[in-house]
Amino acid sequence: MSKPNLSHIVKLGLIALVVMLLVGNASGSASAQATSVKIAIMGPFTGNAASVGQEQLNFAKLAVADFNKTSGMNVQLVEVDTQLDAAKAVTGAQSVVSNNDVLGVVGPAGSQEIEAISPIFAPANIVFVSPSATRTSLTENGVKVFFRVVPRDDVQGPTDAMYMVTALKAKNVYVIDDQTSYSSGLGDEVEKTLKGLNIPTERDSITQKDTDFSALVTRMKGASPDVIFVPFQLANQAAQIAKQMAEQGLKATLFGTDGDFAPADFIKAAGGATEGAYVSFFAPDIHGLPNAKNVVSAYQKQYGDFGSFGGPSYSATTILLEAIQRAAKAGTPTRASVLAEVAKTNDASSILGIPIKFDTKGDIVGASFFIFQVKGDNFVLVPGAAVPPMSATTSATMSATMNAAVSATVSATAAQ
Amino acid sequence: MQAFLSQMPQQIVNGLTLGAVYALIALGYSMVYGILGLLNFAHGDVFMVGAFIGYGVLNVFVPDQTPLIPAVLVIVCMMAVTMLGTGIIGMAIERVAYRPLRNAPRIAPLISALGVSFFLQNAILLTQSARYRDYRTQFLISPRLGLDIGSAHLSLTRALVIVVAVLLMIALTYFVQRTRLGLAMRAVSIDREAAAMMGVDVDRVILTTFFIGSALAGAAGVLFGLVFGQIYHFMGFTAGLKGFTAAVMGGIGNIPGAMLGGLLLGLIETFAIGFISPTYKDVIAFVVLVLVLLIRPSGLLGVRAPQKV
Q1: Quick check: is B181 in a domain?
Q2: Which of A80, A230, B171, B255 could make a disulfide contact with A42, Cβ separation 3.0–4.6 Å?
Q3: Which residue among B143, B233, B274 places its CB closest to the CB of A219?
C-alpha cells in the first residue's frame, strides 16, 4: 500500500463512521425498545435431513403467521440451521442465547443436538420445545427448560416390540438403526424387549448417507428374519431397502417408525415394495383430522404435501407462541416468564388431536402411539392399535406376562 | 461357511454394480490429476448434477407411469443429454475456476474446487429443494426382469449398469490409446511444457479431458439413479470421496488404475457389509486403502515417477 495520505484517512474514517451508525442503530433499537418479539427455530434446513427440516420450518412459519393474524402480535421467526449436526447446533444455540429478542426456541429436531445444547440453554433460562426428539434420556437429566410434544422411546420401543411378537407373530427379528441418537436409542429399546422375550434378534446399522443396501439385504437373507425393524429418520432409506428386498426375494415384514411415516418417500418411491409394511408413529396422520383441516389445506396450498414431522412442529410453535401471549398479559414477556407459561400449558385440543399438558419432566402427558399399515397409496391406521403410553411398572408387568405366555407356547409347540 | 458360499454370488453382483459406478467417477478424478496435478473436488458434485439432469430428462419422457417412447430410447436419451450436459459443465468449471489459477500455487485451485463444489450443491438445493428425488425405474424397467445365476439374482437394471459402464470404459481406452487427441492427452500428462513445445494445444487438451471426465461422471450419475433410485443434492460428497479413494487405490493419474480401483472398492465395500459388518464398512474400505498404499505407495497400478536428482 502506498504511503497513506490525509484524504485516504478521511475517507476511511467517514466509511467507518457510517458503518458504526448503521450497526449501532440496528442493535441499539433492539435492546433499547425490545419491540420485536422473536422466537427461534432450529432444525436441519439443509444437509442430509433437509426434507425433515424444511417441513418443520414451513409448518412453524405457518404457525407464526396464523398466530400473528389471530392475536394481533407481531412475532418474528429466526431460522437457525443445524443440519442435524450437534456441533452446528451448539454454535446456533450460542447465537440464539446472545440474541436478546429471542424468548423461546422450537426444536432442534435431533436427540443428539439436544444433548449438546442443553448445557447452553439451561443457564440462559430459555425454553425450547422439540417437535421430534424421542430419546428417553433427554427428560431424565433434570433440565428444566426442555419440553417435547412427542412421546419417548422407552414407551415406543416396548410397544413396537410387543406388537411384532403378538400381532405379527415374529420369531426372528432384524434391527437396523441409522446410527443417530434417536435411531440407536429406539433400536436398543426394541432389542432389549425382544431379548427379554427370548426372540432371536440381529442388530446392524447403516448411516444416513448410504444409498445402496443390496449387500445388507443379501446379508439379512442369511438370517431369515420375519420382521425387519427400521427406525430411520429418512424414510427413503427404508423404501430403498424394501425395493432391494423385493428384487432379491427376501420376504419379511418391514416395520418402521416416526421418520418413515412419509407417504411420498416411503410409499410412492418404493413403487409397491412397501405394501403391507407397518409404521408406528407418535401422532395421528393429521391429513384426516377434523382439528387440523384448516392448517392442512393452508399448508398444502402454500407448500405442497408433507409427511409426519410437520404437525408436531406446528403444535410446538403454537405452544410457545401462546405462552408468550400469556406472559405478555402480565407485562413485557421475558425468557423466564415464557418458560413458566410453557410449563403451565393446558390446551384442551390441538392439531395433533390430543390435549397438550406437560409433566414435571417436560414430557407431554397422554400421547399415544399409532400403528399404521401401508395399503395402496396410503397409511391406514391398524384398528385397535392406538396404544396409550405404558408406565414403567405396567411395561414390566406386561413383559413378565408376555414372557410367561411365549415360553409356555414355545414349550407346548416343542412338546408336540 | 455355508452362509458365505450361498451369499457370495449375490454379493459379487452387488459389488460389481457399485464398483462400476465408482469406477466411472474415479476415471474423472484420475484423468484430471494426471493432466493438471489437480484434485478436482467438484467432481462428485458434477456426478450429482448429472443425476439430476437425467432425472429431468426422465420426467419429460415418463411424466406419469408409462413412458411416452420405448424405454430403451428413454435411457439412451437420458445418457446422451446428461453426458453432454455434464461435459459442458465440466468445461465451464475448468474455464472459470481452474484456468486462471493454472500458474498459482497448488493449493489455490484446490480451494477453488471446494468453492465450485459448494456452489453446485447449493445451486441444486435452491432450485430443486431438499427432497429426495426418485428415479421411478420401475416404470422403465420392470423390477422382476432379470437372470438367476446360481443363488444370485442379476436384475436387468444392474446388468445394464455394469454393461454400460464397461462399454464406456472400453470407449475411453480406445480414445486414449488410438486417437490423436488421446495421444495429445497422454503427452500433456507426461510433460505439459514439452507437449506445448511439440505443437499440442494444451488448453484444448485440458478442456477435452474435463469434458470426458465430467461426461463419465454424469453417466455414473444416471446409472446410479437408475439402480439405486434416489438422488439428492448432497450425494456428491460421499460419491466423490469414494471415487477419489478408488482412484488413489488404483494409482492416481492412471486410467486402468481408476477402473480397477473402482471395481475393487465396490467389491470390498460390499463384502465388508455382507460378511463383516455394515456399521464398519467405511472403516474397512479405508483400512484397505491404507494397506494398499503402505505396500504400493503409488497405488495398485501406479507407476513411481522417476526421482530427478
Answers
A1: yes
A2: A80
A3: B274
Residue of B153, B238, B270 lying closest to A247 (CB–CB): B153
- Among A46, A207, A269, select the one facing B230 at the smallest CB separation: A269
The answer to whether A151 and A390 have CB atoms below 8 angstroms apart is no
Set of cell numbers at residue A170: 415374529
pTM (2 decimals)? 0.79
CB B23, CB B92: distance < 8 Å:
no
Angle at A10 between CA A9 and CA A13, to 5 degrees: 85
Instruction: Identify the contact set of chain A against chain B, taking CB-CB distances under 8 A.
Output: 45-48, 50-51, 53-54, 176, 179, 204-207, 209, 211-212, 214-216, 218-219, 221-222, 234, 236, 239-240, 243, 246-249, 264-265, 268-269, 271-272
For residues B14 and B266, what is the distance between their CA atoms, to the nearest angstrom? 8
Q: Which of B6, B136, B270 lies at the smallest CB-CB distance from A271?
A: B136
B277 — contact with chain A (CB < 8 Å)? yes
Q: Which residues in chain A have their CB less than 8 angstroms from residue B269's CB?
A: 215
**Which residue segment(s) compose the domain that B170 sits in?**
16-233
CA distance A382 to A370: 8
User: What is chain A's pLDDT, residue by residue, as a tens digit (416 residues)?
Assistant: 555 567 778 777 777 777 666 655 544 444 433 457 999 999 988 766 777 788 899 999 999 999 999 988 899 999 999 988 889 999 999 999 999 999 999 989 888 899 999 999 999 999 999 998 888 889 998 889 999 998 888 888 888 999 999 999 999 999 999 998 889 989 999 999 999 999 999 999 998 888 889 999 999 998 899 999 999 988 889 999 999 998 888 999 999 998 788 777 788 878 888 999 999 988 777 887 888 889 999 999 998 888 777 889 999 999 999 999 999 998 889 999 999 999 999 988 888 888 899 999 999 888 778 888 999 888 888 876 555 544 444 444 555 555 555 455 445 544 44
Task: Give B-chain residues touching A268 at CB under 8 angstroms.
Answer: 134
Q: What is the pLDDT of residue A108?
A: 93
Q: Is residue B290 part of a domain?
A: no
Are B117 and B42 in contact, with CB atoms under 8 Å apart?
A: yes
A289-293 contacts at long range (C-beta below 8 A, 24 or more positions apart): A289/A351, A289/A352, A289/A353, A291/A349, A291/A350, A291/A351, A291/A352, A291/A353, A292/A351, A292/A352, A292/A353
Q: Tens of pLDDT along A233-247?
A: 888 899 999 999 988
Substitution target from A54, A177, A211 for chain B, most B beta carbons within 10 A? A211
Q: Are residues B229 and A247, on separate chains, in Cβ contact within 8 Å? A: no
Domains with residue ranges and CATH for chain A = 33-151+288-357 (3.40.50.2300), 153-281+377-415 (3.40.50.2300)
Q: Which three cell numbers stand for residue A200?
A: 432371536
**Mutation target vs A (from B157, B269, B273; most A CBs, 10 A cutoff):** B273
For chain B, what is the domain count?
1
**Is the complex ipTM more than 0.90?**
no
Quick one: pLDDT at residue A308?
A: 74
Residue with cell 484423468: B31
The beta-carbon neighbor of B228 closest among A205, A207, A240 is A240
Instruction: Tell me, yes or no, whether B51 lies in a domain.
Output: yes
Interface residue B238 vs chain A (CB under 8 A): yes
Chain A residues touching B138 at Cβ < 8 A:
271-272
Residue B187 lies inside a defined structural domain of this protein: yes
Q: How far is CA B125 from CA A27, A308, B121, in A?
A: 32, 22, 6
